[in-house]
Amino acid sequence: MKSNLIASLWLVLLVAFSSCGTGKKLEAAQADNAKLTSDLSACNSNVATANAKIAEQNSQITSLQGQNASLAHDAAAYRELIADLKARQQALNAALAEQGTSLKEIKEKIIAGLSQLQDSGIDVEFREGLLWVDLPEKLLFAPGSATLGSHAKDALSPLASVLNNYPRVQIYVVGHTDTLKIHTARFQDNWSLSTERANSIVRVLKDNYNVDPARLMAAGRSKYKPAASNDTKEGRALNRRIQIVLNPDLRKLWDMMNDQ
């Protein structure tokens, strides 16, 4: 009887100790499970963040691909435009060469033709995209007069010869005066004098040298476009002048370009 009681007591103690060890293992397992669950949740959060970034980058890639396609289209259009402009420029240059409207060439020929008059104050230069030939009053007219003498008409001969070789060039003849009042009954004022001097040049070019009148235009600027100060004798002499302005008539050339 006593031995059975002892055996039962040992069994109870064994079960108690066994139950205590199992509980600790369960608690450890539960703690590990909680940590794994937390880690998994953190991983899922990181995956979601990464997926969001991937989606954003994919969206940016799609946008950049669209921009690249647009830029490629624009670049192709730009290349076509450049090629077209280059072709037009080449055609225009060829037409200019064919028509012989080179202002540089005209300038050289005018300077050569008027070389014997270099000391008379003639000036030939490019300004504002045009070729300007400045002829001083003393070469052409007496003070207060708009009548060309025979010597003045002869001085225009080499200029007219060059102009006739370039029939497409338009010719503008402009008279200028100083500020001194006109003391003659023939002209009302400096406007009249400057305009009639230009008319005289135009008539000589047409009548004496057969320059096509359709190319000619006469105008007077009076005292309102001075080349120098009117306060000195030398300045007033520079202001009394005739300007012959040469302008290539490119209308037909541009029409040709626009038809391409």
Describe this protein's structure:
It is a single chain. With 260 residues, the protein is an alpha+beta fold. The chain folds into two domains: 1-99; 100-256, 2-Layer Sandwich (60s Ribosomal Protein L30, Chain: A), CATH 3.30.1330.60. Helices cover 62% and strands 13% of the residues. The chain has eight helices and five strands; from the N terminus they run H-H-E-E-H-H-H-E-H-E-H-E-H. It has a five-stranded mixed β-sheet. Helix 2 (103-113) runs antiparallel to helix 5 (157-164). The longest helix has 98 residues, at 2-99. The protein is rod-shaped and about 170 Å long. The N and C termini lie far apart (130 Å). The mean pLDDT is 83.
E-strand count: 5
Shape: rod-shaped
Give me the CATH fold name of the largest domain.
Answer: 60s Ribosomal Protein L30, Chain: A
CATH superfamily of the largest domain: OmpA-like domain
The H-and-E topology, N to C, reads as HHEEHHHEHEHEH
Span between termini: 130 Å
What is the makeup of the main sheet?
A: 5 strands, mixed
Taking pLDDT < 50 over at least 5 consecutive residues as the criterion, the unreliable ranges are none
Q: Pairing-aware structural class of the strands and helices?
A: alpha+beta
Q: Note the total helix count.
A: 8
In round numbers, the mean pLDDT is 83
Helix percentage range: 55-70%
CATH architecture of the largest domain: 2-Layer Sandwich
Strand content: 5-15%
